[in-house]
Amino acid sequence: MLIETAPAPSRPAPPHERPSSFAIDVPEALLVRARAGERAAFEQVYRRFERPVFTLALRICGEREAASDVLQDTMLKVIARIGDFRGNGSPFWGWLRQIAVNEALMHLRRGRRQAGELPVDGHEPADDSAPPPPAAADTAQLQRALAQLPAATRGVLWLYHAEGYTHEEIAALMQRTPSFSKSQLARGTRRLRALLQIEENDHA
């Protein structure tokens, strides 16, 4: 009698191979119109990227009001600088995403909240291959769990798991070291898993 075995679970794709929420195609004709200052073109760009910018800002900053501020500041900066974007093989969404990340982290620094991070416990090694957090039952559940993490830890988790940044890139953005990013990823992922489990038990 043959025993059927379940296929081995697939490993999550490396961060640099995961699609970004910002990976939205923008026609060159639309960018030309936006560079020329056409208001309707700017409105189309805004509508395309409103959701990913707000979501990123909400995950990093932890508050809807702060996320709205980051969204506004990001799009104002995009409007002011769109004439500087030349592409050179890089997608427009990558350029816009970089502005959004910088604005979100700048907001944290202004609020003096980025210093918050999960402490080193002295015996747990940083896990560079930490799997992504489990999918929450709903967006609100995930947001509640993320809100309980320190700001810097939350930022590392989102940039690494959701946006595919490397530890070296995160370190440069946060003005820290790759080791800091790796340790916060490992500890933050474990803490988020525990928080989501508590959420599930509370709503069971």
UniProtKB/TrEMBL annotation:
<dbReference type="InterPro" id="IPR007627">
    <property type="entry name" value="RNA_pol_sigma70_r2"/>
</dbReference>
<feature type="region of interest" description="Disordered">
    <location>
        <begin position="1"/>
        <end position="20"/>
    </location>
</feature>
<keyword id="KW-0804">Transcription</keyword>
<dbReference type="InterPro" id="IPR013249">
    <property type="entry name" value="RNA_pol_sigma70_r4_t2"/>
</dbReference>
<keyword id="KW-0805">Transcription regulation</keyword>
<keyword id="KW-0731">Sigma factor</keyword>
<feature type="domain" description="RNA polymerase sigma-70 region 2">
    <location>
        <begin position="46"/>
        <end position="113"/>
    </location>
</feature>
<dbReference type="InterPro" id="IPR039425">
    <property type="entry name" value="RNA_pol_sigma-70-like"/>
</dbReference>
<dbReference type="InterPro" id="IPR013325">
    <property type="entry name" value="RNA_pol_sigma_r2"/>
</dbReference>
<feature type="region of interest" description="Disordered">
    <location>
        <begin position="117"/>
        <end position="136"/>
    </location>
</feature>
<comment type="similarity">
    <text>Belongs to the sigma-70 factor family. ECF subfamily.</text>
</comment>
<dbReference type="Pfam" id="PF08281">
    <property type="entry name" value="Sigma70_r4_2"/>
</dbReference>
<dbReference type="InterPro" id="IPR036388">
    <property type="entry name" value="WH-like_DNA-bd_sf"/>
</dbReference>
<dbReference type="InterPro" id="IPR014284">
    <property type="entry name" value="RNA_pol_sigma-70_dom"/>
</dbReference>
<dbReference type="InterPro" id="IPR013324">
    <property type="entry name" value="RNA_pol_sigma_r3/r4-like"/>
</dbReference>
<dbReference type="Pfam" id="PF04542">
    <property type="entry name" value="Sigma70_r2"/>
</dbReference>
<protein>
    <submittedName>
        <fullName>RNA polymerase sigma factor</fullName>
    </submittedName>
</protein>
<feature type="domain" description="RNA polymerase sigma factor 70 region 4 type 2">
    <location>
        <begin position="141"/>
        <end position="192"/>
    </location>
</feature>
